[in-house]
Amino acid sequence: MSRKKNNDQKAKESIMNLCTSAGMNTWFIAKVLGSPGIHYGAFHAEGVNIYKFDKVQPVLQQTNQWGNFSEASVDFYAQKTVLALKGVSNGCTITILEKGKDLVPLLQSNTNISVQIIERPWWRKILGFRSKTKWKMAVATIVYILLIGKVVGTFTGSGSSASTTSASSTVSEPAKTPEQIAKEKADALKITDSDKELLKKSYASFDTQQRDQFDKIKEKYKNLSNSEVADISTDFARLSTEEAAVKKKEAEEKAAADAKAAYKKWVDSQFSAWDGSNRYLVDLLKKNLNDPKSFEHVETKYWDRGDYLIIKMSYRAKNAFGGLILQNVTAKSDYKTDTISIISQND
């Protein structure tokens, strides 16, 4: 891993920890265009905080609250997303360098901001034509003409040689052309009718296969055109919110189940499988007996209080005069502190 990547990851983790400690519901941390250089945007439920990372700790540069804005325009480029926020008397523009498309459904489902996705003509989506800079478009035109000529020449030459050997060739499946391969890859990235049908459903009703399909839709979403994003963004935002809620509930249920299992294991470990005595209480009691070797366990009962046990044990042991007498002791065994203490004796 490069040092640059280490620094980037360190910055994001540091900012995420800072936001978590401040009680923010942080959606994600992404690089944004700063002044100067690269800064980091912490996008959260209340707004966006812009930080500069000085190799030691994040320094807050700017704070914007979603509640101060009523409109937003989003322009997607190949390597960036330009978010323009507008309020009654203020506005700001943030250039996001990653995860730009992830922000749109979050804004739509969690704020009152009216989001408009800017549409661009198809030719402005071609590399070299996006900025409308004349010299870039001229260079791109020359490069594309040369590439097209090379491709045409390649297929023309291969066609003539193939005709001389076709008679002796065995019948086989024709090789896919670069265009066919490119089309298949492009089709794989498109939102299908099946995807659109899935987006109308509730995430809570998804089976494992449908969850996998939605994961693939999320990957496709990152590469969609502006018009395709606009077509499904409402359903996508709703499902993303539902997914977060379902997974949070599942995580909480798993944590509760794990905690319950751990507690049961702790309870079971408290008592001897041989005579049912609490080994920790026996050890504690013997330290205070006149003759520890005379200890004889009779019976142990316990009451489970949720995070501690009340234990009552009957036993025989010699008193100060050497007589073997029946006695009892009541103790508390605490799960959280993993300690045991005597409450009373011979009551």
From TrEMBL:
<feature type="compositionally biased region" description="Low complexity">
    <location>
        <begin position="160"/>
        <end position="172"/>
    </location>
</feature>
<protein>
    <submittedName>
        <fullName>Uncharacterized protein</fullName>
    </submittedName>
</protein>
<keyword id="KW-0812">Transmembrane</keyword>
<feature type="region of interest" description="Disordered">
    <location>
        <begin position="160"/>
        <end position="180"/>
    </location>
</feature>
<keyword id="KW-0472">Membrane</keyword>
<feature type="transmembrane region" description="Helical">
    <location>
        <begin position="135"/>
        <end position="155"/>
    </location>
</feature>
<keyword id="KW-1133">Transmembrane helix</keyword>
